[in-house]
Protein backbone atom coordinates (compact mmCIF):
# COMPACT_ATOMS: atom_id res chain seq x y z
CA UNK A 1 0.00 0.00 0.00
CA UNK A 2 1.45 3.33 -1.07
CA UNK A 3 -0.96 6.01 0.24
CA UNK A 4 1.29 8.90 -0.79
CA UNK A 5 1.58 7.84 -4.44
CA UNK A 6 0.81 10.68 -6.85
CA UNK A 7 -0.67 8.18 -9.31
CA UNK A 8 -3.87 7.01 -7.55
CA UNK A 9 -3.93 3.83 -9.66
CA UNK A 10 -0.67 2.71 -8.04
CA UNK A 11 -1.63 3.13 -4.38
CA UNK A 12 -2.08 -0.62 -3.92
CA UNK A 13 0.17 -3.35 -5.16
CA UNK A 14 -1.02 -6.90 -5.60
CA UNK A 15 0.66 -9.46 -3.41
CA UNK A 16 1.41 -12.88 -4.74
CA UNK A 17 2.43 -14.10 -1.28
CA UNK A 18 1.10 -17.49 -0.44
CA UNK A 19 0.78 -18.98 2.98
CA UNK A 20 0.97 -17.96 6.58
CA UNK A 21 3.92 -15.94 7.83
CA UNK A 22 5.29 -16.14 11.37
CA UNK A 23 4.53 -19.70 12.46
CA UNK A 24 8.11 -20.01 13.67
CA UNK A 25 7.32 -17.44 16.38
CA UNK A 26 4.25 -19.18 17.81
CA UNK A 27 4.15 -20.38 21.40
CA UNK A 28 2.09 -23.37 22.42
CA UNK A 29 -1.14 -23.06 24.44
CA UNK A 30 -1.67 -19.34 23.81
CA UNK A 31 -4.49 -18.05 21.60
CA UNK A 32 -3.32 -17.48 18.01
CA UNK A 33 -4.29 -14.25 16.27
CA UNK A 34 -4.25 -14.34 12.46
CA UNK A 35 -3.59 -10.81 11.16
CA UNK A 36 -3.79 -9.47 7.63
CA UNK A 37 -0.47 -7.68 7.21
CA UNK A 38 3.16 -7.74 8.29
CA UNK A 39 2.54 -4.41 10.01
CA UNK A 40 -0.28 -5.80 12.19
CA UNK A 41 1.78 -8.96 12.80
CA UNK A 42 4.68 -6.80 14.00
CA UNK A 43 2.48 -4.74 16.33
CA UNK A 44 0.73 -7.79 17.80
CA UNK A 45 4.09 -9.49 18.36
CA UNK A 46 5.67 -6.52 20.15
CA UNK A 47 2.49 -6.29 22.25
CA UNK A 48 3.13 -9.85 23.42
CA UNK A 49 0.45 -11.69 21.45
CA UNK A 50 0.83 -15.02 19.72
CA UNK A 51 0.22 -14.09 16.09
CA UNK A 52 0.79 -14.91 12.45
CA UNK A 53 -0.27 -13.13 9.27
CA UNK A 54 -1.42 -13.52 5.73
CA UNK A 55 -0.87 -10.74 3.22
CA UNK A 56 -4.31 -10.33 1.72
CA UNK A 57 -7.85 -10.32 3.06
CA UNK A 58 -9.15 -12.63 0.37
CA UNK A 59 -6.78 -15.36 1.53
CA UNK A 60 -8.31 -18.85 1.60
CA UNK A 61 -6.87 -21.18 4.23
CA UNK A 62 -6.15 -24.82 3.51
CA UNK A 63 -6.97 -27.69 5.84
CA UNK A 64 -3.22 -28.23 6.35
CA UNK A 65 -2.71 -24.62 7.45
CA UNK A 66 -5.56 -24.73 9.97
CA UNK A 67 -4.33 -28.08 11.29
CA UNK A 68 -0.80 -26.70 11.70
CA UNK A 69 -2.10 -23.65 13.61
CA UNK A 70 -4.25 -25.83 15.87
CA UNK A 71 -1.10 -27.62 17.00
CA UNK A 72 -0.34 -24.43 18.91
CA UNK A 73 -3.82 -23.57 20.15
CA UNK A 74 -7.45 -24.51 19.69
CA UNK A 75 -8.26 -20.80 20.08
CA UNK A 76 -7.72 -19.26 16.64
CA UNK A 77 -8.81 -15.66 16.08
CA UNK A 78 -9.00 -14.04 12.68
CA UNK A 79 -8.34 -10.30 12.98
CA UNK A 80 -8.47 -8.57 9.61
CA UNK A 81 -9.24 -4.97 8.75
CA UNK A 82 -12.45 -3.37 9.94
CA UNK A 83 -13.69 -2.55 6.45
CA UNK A 84 -16.19 -4.24 4.15
CA UNK A 85 -13.63 -6.55 2.49
CA UNK A 86 -11.97 -7.50 5.77
CA UNK A 87 -15.25 -8.16 7.58
CA UNK A 88 -16.81 -10.17 4.75
CA UNK A 89 -13.77 -12.36 4.13
CA UNK A 90 -12.90 -12.90 7.79
CA UNK A 91 -16.46 -13.95 8.62
CA UNK A 92 -16.46 -16.35 5.66
CA UNK A 93 -13.17 -17.97 6.72
CA UNK A 94 -14.21 -18.00 10.39
CA UNK A 95 -17.41 -19.87 9.57
CA UNK A 96 -15.68 -22.32 7.23
CA UNK A 97 -12.90 -23.25 9.67
CA UNK A 98 -14.43 -22.65 13.10
CA UNK A 99 -12.32 -19.58 13.83
CA UNK A 100 -13.43 -16.62 15.92
CA UNK A 101 -13.60 -13.36 13.96
CA UNK A 102 -12.77 -10.26 15.99
CA UNK A 103 -12.94 -6.63 14.91
CA UNK A 104 -11.44 -3.40 16.16
CA UNK A 105 -14.26 -0.87 15.98
CA UNK A 106 -12.27 2.32 16.56
CA UNK A 107 -9.60 2.08 13.84
CA UNK A 108 -9.15 0.12 10.65
CA UNK A 109 -6.56 -2.27 12.08
CA UNK A 110 -4.37 -2.98 15.10
CA UNK A 111 -1.36 -1.00 13.92
CA UNK A 112 -3.50 2.10 13.30
CA UNK A 113 -5.05 1.72 16.76
CA UNK A 114 -1.60 1.45 18.39
CA UNK A 115 -0.27 4.44 16.47
CA UNK A 116 -3.21 6.55 17.64
CA UNK A 117 -3.64 5.31 21.24
CA UNK A 118 -0.32 3.59 22.07
CA UNK A 119 0.75 -0.02 22.63
CA UNK A 120 -0.62 -0.27 26.16
CA UNK A 121 -4.15 0.76 25.09
CA UNK A 122 -3.83 -1.48 22.03
CA UNK A 123 -2.94 -4.46 24.18
CA UNK A 124 -5.87 -3.76 26.54
CA UNK A 125 -8.28 -3.50 23.60
CA UNK A 126 -7.06 -6.71 21.95
CA UNK A 127 -7.12 -8.62 25.24
CA UNK A 128 -10.79 -7.67 25.62
CA UNK A 129 -11.52 -8.91 22.10
CA UNK A 130 -9.97 -12.35 22.68
CA UNK A 131 -11.46 -12.96 26.15
Describe this protein's structure.
Helix content is 39%, strand content 11%. By secondary structure, the chain is an alpha/beta fold. It has a four-stranded parallel beta sheet with strand order 2-1-3-4, sandwiched between helices. The termini are far apart.
Give the topology, please.
Layout lengths: L31 E4 L2 H9 L3 E4 L9 H8 L5 E4 L4 H14 L2 E2 L8 H8 L1 H12 L1
Parallel strand pairs: 1-2, 1-3, 3-4
Helix pairs in contact: 4-5
Principal-axis shape equals globular
> What summary fits the major beta sheet?
4 strands, parallel
Low-pLDDT stretches? none
The class by helix and strand makeup works out as alpha/beta
Secondary structure tally, helices: 5
Brief descriptors of the model:
131 residues; alpha/beta; 5 helices
In short:
With 131 residues, the chain is of the alpha/beta class.
